[in-house]
Amino acid sequence: MAPSDKKVIIVTGASRGIGLTIAEYLVKASHNVVLVSRSEGQLKELKAQFPSQIAHLVADMTSSDTASKVANLAVKTFGKIDGVAINHGIVTPMTRIENSSIDEWKALYDVNFFSALALVKETIPHLRASKGKFIITSSGAASHAYSSWGAYGSSKAAINSLVQHIAVEEPEIVTVALDPGRTDTDMQKEIREQGAPGNAMTEADYANFKAAFENGQLNRPEWPGHVIAKLTLGAKSEFSGKCLKWNGPEFVELGSSGYLKSS
Is 138 among the residues known to form the active site? Predict the structure, then answer.
């Protein structure tokens, strides 16, 4: 690959799960990647394997200066930004609204929405210049309510709306919300551990999530992860402003049809 063909992609939540598979796909495809996570272990391992292709930052995305640090690191190291995969997020607190804490909701929104917004705002000028891509991980919970998921689901609905607004305001940037389906990550484990009926999920919904894991029906992280990685490199303009399922008909050419159907 010629140096001019290499893309520079920022990936958040990059130390595990879907984020790690996005990063691995991109570096193995010879692109340059800026990785951001609260933990360093996997970032250091990837850096050791691909020293010239990776810059990484261990940081809390909710810190007020993280977005600018990430953008500056990308430009200082690689000279440009071609894509941003915003993949970090949390699902807790899992509490019915009547028993919830407004401060806990605000903390979740800081992670799932406002830190994403901050990174978008900081990198818009760079993506406008490169005619780049924002790919933001959403969730089916944005449009399907589960008891005790009010904070998480509404934050993802806000993400979907944000994607629509970026698409309207920045027509040179392709902006997509991507629903990864139920994926075998630490978040699913947290749902099984903390979503038990009572103050959390209904018995039927909890049983459904638990059975999906026990019956091997969860997506492997690399399935949606590889689709996201490919979208950061070449998402079509007609996708902009939409929330799409990772294995939807739009992505047959990206190889998603070769995976098991998401639940």
Answer: yes
Reported confidence tier of residue 263, pLDDT bands at 50, 70, 90: very low
Residue 214 has pLDDT above 50, yes or no: yes
Confidence of residue 262 (pLDDT cuts 50, 70, 90): very low
DSSP SS3 for 19: helix
Query: 30 CB contacts (<8 Å, ≥6 apart)?
Result: 1, 6, 53
Q: Model pTM?
A: 0.94
pLDDT > 70: what percent of the chain? 95
Active-site annotation holds for 237: no
- Domain extent at residue 132: 3-182+222-241
For residue 36, the domain's CATH number is: 3.40.50.720
Distance CA 43, CA 23 (A): 9
What is the total count of domains within the chain? 1
Q: In the predicted model, what is the mean pLDDT of the chain? A: 93
Six-digit token pair at 230?
């490919």
> Which candidate in 25, 109, 152, 206 is catalytic?
152
* Residue 76 annotated to the active site: no
Calpha distance 50→45 (Å, rounded): 9
Answer yes or no: is 130 within a domain: yes
Tell me, rounded to whole angstroms, the distance of Cα 105 from its chain centroid: 19
Distance, C-alpha 219 to centroid of its chain: 15
Residue in 7, 47, 133, 156 annotated catalytic: 156
Choosing from 138, 139, 148, 256, the catalytic residue is 138
Phi/psi of residue 56, each to 5°? -140, 155
Q: Is residue 47 part of a domain?
A: yes
Q: Is the pLDDT of residue 2 over 70?
A: no
Q: Which token pair is 178?
A: 């991507």
Question: Is the residue at 139 inside a domain?
Answer: yes
